[in-house]
Amino acid sequence: MRIGLGFDIHRLVPGRPLFLGGLQLDWPRGLLGHSDGDCLLHALVDALLGAAGLGDIGDFFPDTEERWRGARSALFVEAALAKLRERGLRPQQVDATVFAEEPRLGPRKQLLARNLAGMLGLSADAVVVKAKTMEGLGAIGAGAAIAAQVLVLLEEAPAGASSQQPAAGPR
User: Fold this and answer.
1) Which pLDDT does position 63 carry in this prediction?
2) pTM of the prediction?
3) Rounded distance between C-alpha atoms, residue 99 and residue 74, angstroms
4) Domains in the chain, number
């Protein structure tokens, strides 16, 4: 077993769509980033790569490369999963926390968890997404940013396990 921890934070700005956990949420502001700014998927990629001893998202998808401008972060998850397969590893469990004052994510937690589970090829009970506010403190508490922290558990893939990529969940 291997454990990885990822964290990411992005500012909320007008004029951008809000992508979180691979889903586009209906909200008047979105996360500022070189890609789509999806801090939940960025933290997930960092956790996956870290658990496999491969580094972090910036090592593979640097914000200095124009080809990643505006990219959907689901591509980064797919690439991280391919790297894990090369090492004979696969995700077993994900525990994620999103820190946001707004939008309120309580009603969306299950949808986010199901989408992550689909992206990773995991059962619904192997992925949890929690939502926390910052009680008005700091940039997140002021509604100026959203952050995510993700913990993943990887296992060695059993001999003869399919090398097929898991089906992507709804986007």
Assistant:
1) 86
2) 0.91
3) 20
4) 1
Q: At 150, which amino acid appears?
A: V
Q: What is the CATH number of the domain that holds 144?
A: 3.30.1330.50
Q: In this structure, is residue 125 part of a structural domain?
A: yes
C-beta of residue 49 within 8 angstroms of C-beta of residue 59: yes
Look up residue 153 and give its two tokens.
């558990």
DSSP 88: T
List pLDDT tens digits, range 83-123: 999 999 999 999 999 999 999 999 899 999 999 999 999 99
Nearest to 39 by CA among 71, 80, 73, 78: 73
Could you list the residue range(s) of the whole structural domain that residue 28 is in? 2-156
Q: Where are the alpha helices (DSSP H) in the chain?
A: 39-51, 57-60, 74-86, 109-120, 138-141
